Amino acid sequence: MTSPFSNSPRPGTTVPSEEVLARLAAVVGPAYAITNKEQQAPHLSEWRERYVGATPMVLRPADTAQVAAILKIANETGTAIVPQGGNTGLVGAQIPFESGNEVVVCLGRLNKIRTVDPSTNTMTVEAGVILADAQAAAEEAGRLFPLSLGAEGSCQIGGNLSTNAGGTAVLAYGNARDLTLGLEVALADGRVWDGLRGLRKDNTGYDLKQLFIGAEGTLGIITAAVLKLFPKPRAVLTAFVGLQDPRAAVRLLHAAAAKAGGTLTSFELMQRIALDFVLKHLAGSRDPLNAVYPWYVLIEVAAFDEEAAVRPRFEALLAEALAEGIVGDAAIAASTAQAAGMWRLRAAMSEVQKHEGGSIKHDVSVPVGSVPEFLERADRRVAELIPEARVVAFGHLGDGNIHYNVSQPLGSDRQAFLARWEEVNAEVHGVVAALGGSISAEHGIGRMKRDLLPTVKSAVEMEMMGRIKAAFDPNGILNPNKLLRQDTH
Ligand SMILES: Cc1cc2nc3c(=O)[nH]c(=O)nc-3n(C[C@H](O)[C@H](O)[C@H](O)COP(=O)(O)OP(=O)(O)OC[C@H]3O[C@@H](n4cnc5c(N)ncnc54)[C@H](O)[C@@H]3O)c2cc1C
User: Fold this and answer.
1) Which pLDDT score, from 0 to 100, does residue 241 have?
2) Phi and psi (nearest 5°) for 130?
3) Range list of H helices, 233-370
């Protein structure tokens, strides 16, 4: 993209002047324009500590008007802006580059729940509302906001929408995109688009909100959203199931979808080693089953009938699967506390890998029926490359989405192992491509997969994306060089 500042450097290539920084600080007030390195630190490194950036200033605006005012100044002065929500993103998109030329804009103070309307099953929340708080507000109104993921205590609605987050309830409710009816967005030039409509039907031209969802902060800054609510199920049944292999898990998935007695909301696949890591590193965790199985699934079914009506069908489903040899053993949670304990094991699987050394990550999807083949083929390729590497696979089988992680061989050198990141990626992504899958199922592209994007998208797709970026952010100030390369890094 060519810069409109014919004699000016591209945004992100030089540090903003003292004068520009003073103008930006004046928008939010000195207490919310952070220049102190210690106070900046939590905003400059991410959860996996793969990217550590630098910035002259972290801005914490209070409302939509302040976000818009920041963007107006940034656009006029060619200042690169990195939007940041809860900083739980896993592809480095929310972290500024190491150059120290980009200003970080944190949305955490836009944390009001504006309205919850059970009569229309909608709620309007600001971008900085933490996902768990949005869930709680829905619950208080007797409704369900179903988006659910391991980071829900920290991630924010703006970040969820900008990454089109998935999580554990996509099977029944869809991903963040499917849960959004309207948006309010501060545009790159400082105007505000009020698209906060709660309509279920609205065929009036291009559906603009869809462009901002999943855009990773490269097209505008989301300041508020109208989200869909759902009736709260009366009964939620959860089971932890041991089985021999992913093929058995796919058979159980089909049986559960047909016969579970309610709506299948979650179907999570987990390899034994992932559970082993949790049992080793998560205080107070215990194996829900007596025997050890190579694979497990965590099933959740939600129903609008009383539990007494649904439980027998759920039990019958599992009993039948046991009789047919599809599953080896199953424990149905007897209480919400037991169900929470099972979910705690699943939720810890990302975190505990850190204690086992370096881990090479893949967030991939393939058609559900191809998951077993994907795992078999990818395992073979990884074993050929690094024989002692430990594959730690788990994920949302119901969506064909596997987090295929490769932990370093025991006793090996962490840095030497991580140096093989691209090599391992190439093998695993090769299998994904052969099976018609995606190299980013739910975490996005960000910085981590930016240079892979042109290898999986056609020239036509890349050109359309470039044109959209140029139309919404002609000066290239919004999260430059994330998702799309702009040739400054
Ligand atoms: C333990 C753990 C488990 C996870 N599980 C899942 C999972 O199951 N499914 C899943 O999809 N993800 C998962 N994630 C990834 C992460 O939680 C999601 O990507 C989440 O949606 C990011 O939200 P955030 O508020 O932390 O955004 P950030 O990390 O702060 O930002 C992510 C991106 O959104 C942009 N952004 C943030 N706010 C705005 C805004 N208001 N306007 C415009 N752009 C903005 C940033 O610039 C960046 O590009 C997990 C992460 C962790 C640490």
Assistant:
1) 98
2) -70, 140
3) 246-259, 272-281, 307-323, 336-347, 349-352
Alpha carbon distance 331, 151 (integer Å):
26
> Which residues make Cβ contacts (< 8 Å) with residue 2, sequence separation at least 6?
none
Helix (H, G, I), strand (E, B) or coil at 379: helix
pLDDT score of 7:
60
Q: Name the closest-CA residue to atom 52, ligand 1.
A: 151
Max distance between CA atoms of the chain, in angstroms, equals: 74
For residue 403, give the H/E element and its range.
strand 401-407
Locate tokens 């500042």: which residue? 5
Q: Which residues line ligand 1 (CB under 6 A)?
A: 47, 82-90, 93-94, 107, 127, 149-151, 155-156, 158-160, 162-163, 165-167, 216-217, 221-222, 350-351, 442-443, 479, 482
Instruction: Report whether 260 contacts 305 (CB < 8 A).
Output: no
Instruction: Give the separation between CA 321 and CA 261, rounded to whole angstroms.
Output: 15
pLDDT at 489: 44
- pLDDT value of position 340: 95
Atom of ligand 1 nearest to the CA of 165: 11
> The pTM is what?
0.95
Q: Which of 82, 155, 216 to mutate to test the pocket of ligand 1 (most atoms within 8 A of CB)?
A: 155
Ligand 1 atom nearest 396 alpha carbon? 8
| Chunked mean pLDDT (size 10), the chain, 489 residues | 58 93 98 98 92 97 98 97 98 97 98 98 98 98 96 97 95 96 98 96 96 98 98 95 98 93 92 98 95 97 91 95 97 96 95 94 97 98 97 96 97 96 96 97 96 95 97 97 81
- Distances in Å between the Cα of 134 and the Cα atoms of 90, 112, 143, 221, 420 are 21, 10, 11, 19, 40
Mutate to test the pocket of ligand 1, among 133, 149, 278 (most ligand atoms within 8 A of CB): 149
Q: At what angle are helices 246-259 and 371-385 packed, to 10 degrees?
A: 160
Query: Given the CA of residue 175, which atom of ligand 1 is nearest to it?
Result: 11
Residue among 81, 88, 401 to mutate when testing ligand 1 (max atoms within 8 A of CB): 88
Give the three-state DSSP class for 459: helix
